[in-house]
Amino acid sequence: MSKSRKLPALLVALVALPLLTSGAGAEQPASKRSGLGRLAHPDEIRAWDIDVRPDGQGLPAGSGSVRDGEALFQERCATCHGDFGEGTGRFPVLAGGRGSLDKESPIKTVGSFWPYAATLYDYVRRAKPYGNARSLSDDEVYAVAAYVLSLNDVVKDDFVFSRETLLTISMPNAAGFRDDDRMASEKHFWARSPCMKTCGKGPARIVGRAGAIDVTPDAKDRPRGE
Amino acid sequence: MSGPDRPPSFSRRSLLGKAGLAGAGLVATATTGARGASGTPDPAITDIQDWNRYLGDGVDKAPYGKPSKHEAHVIRRNVSWFTADTASSINFTPLHALEGVVTPNGLCFERHHSGVADIDPAKHRLMVHGLVEKPLVFALDDLKRFPGRVNRLYFLECSANSGMEWRGAQMNGCQYTHGMIHNVWYTGIPLRSLLAEAGLRPGARWLLAEGADAAAMTRSIPLEKALKDCIVAWAMNGEALRPEQGYPLRIVVPGWEGSLWVKWLRRIKVGDQPWQHREETSKYTDLMADGRSRRFTWVMDAKSVITSPSPQAPFRHRGANVLTGLAWSGRGRITRVDVSIDGGRNWTTARLDGPVLPMSLTRFYLDFDWDGREMLVQSRAMDETGYLQPNKADLRKIRGINSAYHNNAIQTWRVMPGGETENVEVS
User: Fold this and answer.
1) What share of chain B has pLDDT > 70, as a percent?
2) Which of A32, A26, A36 is nearest to A1 (CA)?
3) Nearest chain B residue (CA) to A27
4) Rounded distance, CA B180 to CA B389, Å?
5) Residue B94: CB partners within 8 Å, gap ≥ 6?
6) CB contact, 8 Å: B285 with chain A?
7) Cβ B281–A206 below 8 Å, yes or no?
């Protein structure tokens, strides 16, 4: 690409090195490429490359304390989430719920459910506050995340969240997830020849009715029949 | 936000309006819907109607046409108690009022995490970077010049579809019980073409797809799926994507849960492991009875629903009737749909009509005479892998009742002698 001559040296290095070393085009020979699109500028990548992984890859420099986070949370988050992450209305509850996941009414919060602290950073940075995303500085995101973790007793009140302290955080439900196991645990849903006649025990009995609960919105959408 | 994964409190009853139909007297005594009898001429025939006399609208009246005003009830609907705010909520496709297998663009259900992004297409970019040889930026025009454009019909189902029904029959209408689904012709280019253009580097195993909306929605997608059949699409059913469906660009992930189909797609990052972001850990994971959760439950299991008779589209006459519904599977083609009218004790194989395509809605019919007696109607789908749609009890044995997502159990409608139809559960 002729444009690359005008690009900063950093990008040229970034791009050229892998081209030389990776046996380029294992998927498709370079000659078959359409040539459409253009090289991304390093500043463009920096502007959008905000994702953070559980191992902390993507976390920015900087830090934020629980104490700073408390003030920010009251100002920017508490309207929906409540002063202590208890949630207002039907907005999400952020704290509590530990030990509830196998109960009749599980409460999924950052403390009871979220497996990774880095994801909390990622999510606050990309989407919060609701309705004014990307308005917190990197340090402020650290602080808000630290405060939410403290509301869940995952970190102490003197905690300062940063790249360096990420790995000291132990999320209570980190081991609470397993990969999709349907092919094994639900194997019996496959390859059955379905019962077609006199299936089940005795006639079907009604054991539950939506009408008894009556939570469907007033549809008023009957077709205009004759 | 509070996703559609909390069952409603029954105490909300007092806040809500009365559901369903007017009740008694639904079924017409005559065997025909047309008024009149041999002794009384039908004024629909004997009177000259206004539309038969006066001029109608000219061709300049509706540059973008709308359905007849008499179809104004056929709309997406939401459930106000379901979420805290409509900008982070869901509405439902009126399946009970639709025919065939293609969902009209304006009726495709919506699910947003921070509202509908209002994007100027001239300012929209797609970046492909990460473990690639050349990080690239594409404008829409670039994408539309790519060789190998494809058109594909696929269903998109939210994994929370039927989520309210885990704990028992709740919503009176297939729009609400099954309406987080639509079926659309997409036009775009295979994602593999874009990845080849950028050149994958060794170690590439996963993609992160990111939207340009105020949630900057992200999901991790395994590279294998991306190379197999994912599409970067800009058109639906022949026209540009609707804003609420991701205008100007979305990713199509056939057969897999809807939240992976990132709308307003602006970035694809290639990496060597999944990102475990909020929408694939805190949400869109399936809580099992033991308190642990399944994650990365991408594939949508085979499922079906009878769309008529159903609470919003009951039988209105005795005698000849058409029972109809939809079936689908994220694992491939639907091979068969069985229908029961006695709550699952005896089954009859329905007729499939229209295109039977992999990972697409499939229409089924059963034509029969209804003698007016009470029925417990059910449908049961089977796909080409031999997966048979389970009943609720069998599914709960494995998945408990707190999963919130991935409820593909058999649905029962109770058709009462008057025609009124209700969502029920049976033994």
Assistant:
1) 92
2) A36
3) B196
4) 18
5) A221, B74, B75, B76, B77, B107, B175, B179, B312
6) yes
7) no
Note whether A115 contacts B276, CB cutoff 8 Å. yes
Query: Domain ranges in chain A?
Result: 2-48, 63-168
B19–A218 CB contact, under 8 Å: yes
Residue B367, CB half-sphere, CA atoms under 13 Å: how many?
4
Q: Which residues contact B358 (CB under 8 A, 6 or more apart)?
A: B254, B255, B332, B333, B384
Give the end-to-end CA distance of chain B in Å, rounded to a whole number: 35
pLDDT of B58 over the 60 cut: yes
Cβ neighbourhood burial of A35 (10 Å; 0-12, 13-18, 19+): exposed
CB-count exposure of residue B148 (10 Å: 0-12, 13-18, 19+): exposed
Amino acid at B364: F
Q: Which two tokens stand for residue B307?
A: 């769309």
User: Domain spanning A63-168: which CATH class is it, in words?
Assistant: mainly alpha
Query: Which fold does the domain B303-424 belong to in CATH?
Result: Immunoglobulin-like (2.60.40)
CATH fold of B121-291 = Sulfite Oxidase; Chain A, domain 2 (3.90.420)
- pLDDT tens by residue, B20-35: 333 444 676 545 566 5
CB contacts of B171 in chain A (<8 Å) are 210, 215-216
Which segment of A27-36, A88-97, B53-62 scores lowest on mean pLDDT? A27-36
pLDDT band at A213 (very low <50, low <70, confident <90, very high): confident
Reported ipTM: 0.90
Give the tokens for residue A183: 């092919």
Tell if the CB–CB gap between A24 and B133 is shorter than 8 Å: yes
B298, B302, B301, B269: which is closest to B284 by C-alpha? B298
The residues spanned by each domain of chain B are 121-291, 303-424
**H/E segment holding residue B334:** strand B334-340
Please name the residues between 21 and 40 in chain A that touch chain B, using a CB distance below 8 Å.
22, 24-28, 30, 32-34, 36-40
List A residues 44-103 in contact with B (Cβ-Cβ < 8 A). 44-45, 48-54, 80, 87, 89-92, 101-102
Lowest mean pLDDT, pick from A8-12, A119-123, B225-229, B356-360: A8-12
Mutation target for B interface from A206, A218, A220, A224: give the one with most B CBs within 10 A. Answer: A206
Contact by Cβ (8 Å): A68, A143: yes
* Interface check B35 vs A, CB under 8 A: yes
Range list of H helices, chain A:
9-21, 42-48, 66-76, 78-81, 117-127, 138-151, 182-185, 210-213
Which chain B residue has the Cα nearest residue A177? B293
What amino acid occupies position A58?
Answer: G
Residue A81 backbone phi and psi in degrees, to 5 = -95, -5
pTM reported for the whole predicted model:
0.90
CB B377 within 8 A of CB B415: yes
